[in-house]
Amino acid sequence: MKLLHTADWHIGRRLHGFDLTDEQGNAFEQIEAIAKKEQVDGIIIAGDLYDRRLPAESSVAMVNQMLQRLNLTDHFPVYAISGNHDSATRLATGTPWFKQTDLFLHTALSQAFKPVELADTQIFLCPYFEPFDAQQYFDDDSLQHLDQAFARVVDEMKKAFDPSKKHLLAAHFFAAGSSTTDSETNLTVGGLAAVPTDLLADFDYVALGHLHGKNALHMRQARYSGSPVKFSLSEAAQEKGVWIVDTDQTPVKLTFKTLTPIHDVKLLTDSFDHLIHSTDDPAIDHDDYFGITLTDTQPIPNVMARLREVFPKIVTLSRQDGFSTQVRYQGESGQQIRQKAPMTLLKDFYEQVAKEPLTPQQEKWAKTTLKQASEGGQPS
C-alpha cells in the first residue's frame, strides 16, 4: 500500500490579518497532484482540517469541496481524524454514509479501536481526545493524564492487531521531545500534554498531526507531516510538504514531497533606506509575507505606511535595537478591557495564547474556579 500523509490544513486561518485562502487552495491542488502522480492508494489527514471549532461558512464550503474532490472526483480513499482545532460534532456530520465511498472520518475516541482493514494494512484512526474522554470510555477515573490515557488506548488497539498485516496509526497530539513553533499551542493543558514516544513502538508507522514542521519529531516510524502552509514567522525556514508512506517495504519507506507556496513567509533584516529602494532587487519577491527588522537607530516618520508601499504584506515590524518602530495596531482600549467579565477575559486570553477556544470541559472547570475565587474559597 502507498499512502499520502498530510495534516493541519487549518482552513480559515489568517496570518496576522492576511487572508490565506489562495495559499491554502494552491497547497491543496499540489497535494492532489502529488497523490495522482504517486498513484497512492489512500490519503491520511491527521487532524485540524479547520482552524476553529466554529468555522465560517466559507471555510466549511472549502473543506467540503476538498474532500469531495479527493474522494468523489479522484476516487481516493480518505482516512481522516478530528484535531484539537476541529469541532468533532460538526466534523462528524454525514459520516454514517461516508464509508460507502471509502471516506473514513473518525471524530470520537470509541472509533479508534476498530481499524480500517486493507489488503496488507490495518489503519487505526485515533482523533484528538482529552483524558476525560478516556475516563468515560473505559469507566476509569484513574486516567488523569494523557500519557496514562494513551497507554490504555494503545493497549486496547493492540487487541485488534492482525499479525499478518502492517499496523498504521493516525493521531493528533504532542509527542514528547518534539519541537514547536509559536503558531502551535504552547500550553500543556488537558489533552495537549505530551505522549511518550515509546507508546508508539508497536506501530509500523504513526501519521501525526498537531505540530506544523516535518522535523518536529525524529523517529523512524512516527512523523509529523507538518502544515501545508506557513502560519507564522517562526515557520519561515520550514519546508512544507507531505509524506508518501510505502507499507510494502519493511521498515516502511518514507519519502517527503515538498510544496511550493504562492507567497512565502520570510524574515528580513535591513536598513529602511535599503528596503525602500529594493524594488529592483531580483532576490526579493515583494509580494511575500515579511517579518521585517529595521537596523536603523533613528525614528522614521510614517515608517509602516512607507514600507507597505514596497512590501504590501508586512506581518510584523520591529527594530534591531528593541525600540518601538512607532507601529500602532488596532485593538481594544484599557477601559473596554476593564469592562469585560472575568470569564470573558479568561476565554480571550486562552484563545490568544492557545490559538483555539476553551473546550466545554475546560470552560466548566474555569467557571467553577472563578466562582470559588469570587466567593473567597479555594479551588477543590
Automatic annotation (TrEMBL):
Residues annotated as region Disordered? 360-380
List, in alphabetical order, the Gene Ontology terms for molecular function in this entry.
3'-5' exonuclease activity; endonuclease activity
**Which positions carry the signal peptide feature in this UniProt record?**
none
Nuclease SbcCD subunit D C-terminal domain span? 263-353
Residue ranges constituting the Calcineurin-like phosphoesterase domain according to the UniProt record: 1-213
Which keywords annotate this record?
Answer: DNA recombination, DNA replication, Endonuclease, Exonuclease, Hydrolase, Nuclease
Give the matching Pfam families: Metallophos (PF00149), SbcD_C (PF12320)
Q: Where is the composition biased (Polar residues)?
A: 369-380
Reading the lineage from the top rank, the first entry is Bacteria
- Give the Gene3D superfamilies listed for this entry: 3.60.21.10
Which segments does the entry list as coiled coil?
none
Q: Which BP terms in the Gene Ontology apply to this protein?
A: DNA recombination; DNA replication
Q: What does this protein do?
A: SbcCD cleaves DNA hairpin structures. These structures can inhibit DNA replication and are intermediates in certain DNA recombination reactions. The complex acts as a 3'->5' double strand exonuclease that can open hairpins. It also has a 5' single-strand endonuclease activity.
Q: How does it assemble?
A: Heterodimer of SbcC and SbcD.
Q: Which family does it belong to?
A: Belongs to the SbcD family.
Query: What is the protein name given in its UniProt record?
Result: Nuclease SbcCD subunit D
The species this protein belongs to is Secundilactobacillus folii
